[in-house]
Amino acid sequence: MKSRYKYPDTYIVWNSMRMRCLNPHSQHYKNYGGRGIKVCERWNEFMNFLSDMGCAPEDLTLERIDNNGNYCKENCRWATRKEQALNRRCGTIVVEIDSRRDSVRGWIKILGVPPAAIIRAVRKNGTTHEQEIRKYLNGIPHEPG
Predict the structure, then answer these.
(1) Are strands 100-103 and 94-97 parallel, antiparallel or unpaired?
(2) For every one of its 145 residues, what pLDDT tens digit does the chain have, with 9 covering 90 and above?
(3) Can you list the alpha helix ranges (DSSP code H) found in 3-145?
(4) What pTM did the predictor assign?
(5) Cα-flanking dihedrals φ and ψ of residue 102, to 5°?
């Protein structure tokens, strides 16, 4: 389908965002518009969206920084699919160590510890904070990955 705009990838992102939030017949409406996620009034016009966000970079997607917030300039950015996965509602546990955020699966690879070690550390301490995780992991023997 040829877009009437000279920024077809960005137009598709913009249009998809609006459909998720505004069209009750959209497959994804229940997770967006259906739970109250809105598109700011300014972004009703494609050129305003383009002005605020710029062209869609290749291999990046539009992400809401606050997953429960609306689509607007202050709450959106271009992100990789991996970054987006860290911002999901479905229970991805994000752990921050040395100012780096990653999923439990990511830290398993980085630290070379058994998967259960990080999961136990998070569950036992009820936290994803670096000091608590490190304290727990210090007592577990592991091979650096």
Answers:
(1) antiparallel
(2) 444 557 789 999 999 999 999 999 999 999 999 999 999 999 999 999 999 999 999 999 999 988 889 999 999 999 888 777 655 544 556 666 667 777 666 766 777 766 666 666 666 666 555 555 566 555 544 444 4
(3) 8-22, 46-53, 81-85, 104-111, 115-125, 130-138
(4) 0.60
(5) -155, 165
